[in-house]
Design goal:
By secondary structure, the protein is an all-alpha fold. It contains six helices and no strands. The radius of gyration is 18 Å and the shape is elongated.
């Protein structure tokens, strides 16, 4: 069935929903976090740990692969537990991993465990975010809310590395 309202009117109604902005912020952190890592992690590993480009790229690929594999796990967990709890748990893991990594521990094993824990949590958090959208968005706006949230994730992934690169000069 074709919508009776214009695209602009439907989009404006979606943007007026508080949960659109809340889910967008969560997804910008969760999905954006692992996209940002995929962009910035090789440079960080080369600078902080002196890794060769190929080694840093391989480790980044492992990080991203784990995050991608954990995304459906986050959705699955959110089918069994409240998505807000799953998200809170994943974000706590990210904060803990970032706190450990802030001290640049040795890569084996502490640094690797910190990075992989963050990867798993960011992936699971991405899945949990969309479970939350499906749960909280009005049924006639799930698609448009999902579109806005997905766009926020893309921005969350590419803006931080650009800022970090600019600030690092």
């Amino acid at each position: 069935m074709a919508p009776a309202e214009s695209l602009a009117h439907r989009l404006a109604a979606t943007l007026r929903l508080r949960m659109t902005w809340q889910a967008s912020a969560l997804y910008a952190v969760a999905y954006g976090g692992y996209v940002a890592f995929s962009v910035y992690l090789p440079a960080y590993l080369k600078t902080a740990y002196g890794l060769a480009q190929a080694d840093a790229a391989n480790r980044m690929a492992g990080f991203v692969l784990l995050a991608v594999l954990m995304r459906p796990v986050g959705g699955w967990l959110s089918d069994r537990f409240p998505p807000t709890g799953v998200l809170a748990g994943t974000l706590l893991v990210v904060v803990a991993g970032a706190a450990v990594q802030a001290f640049t521990p040795g890569l084996a094993p502490v640094g690797t465990v910190a990075f992989l824990s963050m990867a798993a949590a960011l992936g699971a958090g991405s899945g949990a975010t969309f479970a939350l959208v499906a749960l909280l968005a009005p049924a006639n706006k799930v698609g448009s809310v999902t579109g806005v949230v997905g766009a926020a994730g893309g921005l969350g992934g590419f803006v931080p590395p650009l800022l970090m690169g600019r600030l690092g000069r």
